[in-house]
């Protein structure tokens, strides 16, 4: 397990450094264009991945029976939806790139989920580390060493290399899979299977709706910025989210291991909960120190291109801290398949965001969406913890 976390940590460090290279060397306009495509793709594949992950792990038997072509069906629906949105808020080239990147990243995410269910975490982490290290190396050569590539825009180079490496990582994971898995995946696109997948996902509307809202809420400020068509705000939020992603990925690394174990063994939930809250104060202290360090380092990285970046980063990071507090509660609800309660929680939080955004915008249009997201995260965390305690009490009574 220690080796796994070391490899996973190195992988995320490479990705974080790649983000810093882009923040440092891309202009505000270039980074805004990059952020629109990259962030839209990340949001969409995480929504799709969230749906598949929760059903594949917690409803594995029915998923394997009905959801054979799940990734294609979901990519078709959500990929086209986000591409149309990007087309109206950017241009056709950005929409096409978003669709391509969404498809590639989703296929890669599906492979990660299957390895997670099998608890073969090291294979995925190793391939991911190799991919991120290569991307960092290519970006460094392009921007830091200043290798000229005529007719290729800087933002397109970053997105194109990321897409190519997603193809490479997918291929490598397929090679490391058994021939039976490869054979099974090669017959996915039959029409009858497509229809059965659609019916299956519609029948699990609670999971789908929770995953959509849960996947979109972290990107709420960025969505508002794209609606406003504010290039400076898009680039600032995009850069702040790249810094925040460092913390969010650390939380996701914990979930990658914990979710599978919770869903497989309900008897360890109480022990895991007790252990988690014992180390939570130390984890929060480390998080605060890390936030303070990055807050100090930001001007040295971007050269002051984004005046409001540090404030945006701190506010977004507070959302990561709130999310960390409710991590075990969310995992408990996942273990009990309490998706209806979870959906209601994120729905209430989202409504709070929408309602208070105009109020905070009166104070600051730049910070309004960020502050409203903090309010939404607080509401969601409290509701998740309350629902988890209620479910645990019911389980104890039944037991």
Automatic annotation (TrEMBL):
Q: Does the keyword Repeat apply?
A: no
Question: Among its keywords, does the record have Transmembrane?
Answer: yes
Q: Transmembrane segments in this chain: where?
A: 12-28, 34-56, 68-88, 122-145, 151-176, 207-228, 240-263, 275-298, 310-330, 342-361, 367-386
Question: Keywords, A to Z?
Answer: Membrane, Transmembrane, Transmembrane helix
Which domain of life, per UniProt? Bacteria
- Which protein, by its recorded name, is this? Polysaccharide biosynthesis protein
């Amino acid at each position: 397990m220690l080796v796994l976390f070391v490899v996973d940590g190195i992988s995320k460090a490479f990705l974080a450094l790649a983000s810093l290279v882009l923040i440092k060397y891309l202009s505000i306009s270039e980074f805004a264009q990059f952020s629109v495509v990259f962030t839209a793709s990340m949001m969409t594949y995480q929504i799709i991945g969230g749906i598949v992950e929760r059903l594949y792990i917690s409803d594995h038997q029915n998923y394997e029976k009905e959801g054979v072509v799940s990734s294609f069906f979901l990519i078709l629906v959500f990929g086209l939806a986000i591409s149309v949105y990007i087309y109206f808020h950017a241009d056709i080239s950005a929409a096409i790139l978003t669709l391509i990147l969404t498809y590639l990243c989703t296929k890669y995410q599906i492979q990660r989920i299957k390895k997670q269910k099998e608890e073969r975490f090291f294979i995925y982490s190793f391939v991911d580390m190799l991919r991120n290290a290569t991307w960092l190396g290519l970006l460094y050569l392009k921007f830091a060493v200043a290798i000229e590539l005529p007719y290729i825009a800087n933002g397109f180079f970053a997105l194109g290399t990321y897409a190519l490496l997603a193809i490479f990582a997918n291929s490598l994971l397929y090679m490391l899979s058994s021939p039976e898995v490869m054979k099974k995946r090669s017959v996915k696109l039959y029409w009858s299977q497509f229809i059965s997948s659609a019916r299956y996902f519609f029948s699990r509307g609670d999971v789908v709706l929770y995953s959509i809202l849960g996947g979109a809420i972290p990107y709420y400020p960025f969505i508002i910025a794209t609606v406003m068509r504010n290039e400076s705000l898009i680039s600032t939020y995009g850069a702040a989210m790249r810094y925040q992603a460092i913390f969010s990925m650390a939380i996701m690394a914990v979930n990658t291991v914990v979710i599978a174990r919770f869903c497989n063994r309900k008897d360890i939930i109480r022990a895991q909960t007790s252990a988690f809250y014992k180390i939570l104060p130390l984890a929060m202290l480390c998080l605060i120190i890390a936030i303070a360090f990055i807050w100090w380092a930001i001007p040295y990285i971007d050269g002051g291109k984004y005046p409001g970046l540090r404030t945006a980063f701190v506010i977004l990071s507070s959302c990561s801290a709130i999310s960390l507090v409710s991590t075990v509660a969310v995992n408990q609800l996942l273990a009990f398949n309490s998706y209806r309660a979870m959906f209601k929680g994120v729905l209430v939080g989202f409504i709070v965001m929408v309602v208070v955004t105009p109020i905070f915008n009166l104070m600051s249009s730049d910070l309004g969406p960020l502050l409203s997201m903090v309010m939404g995260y607080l509401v969601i965390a409290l509701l998740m913890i309350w629902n988890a305690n209620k479910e645990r009490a019911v389980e104890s009574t039944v037991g």
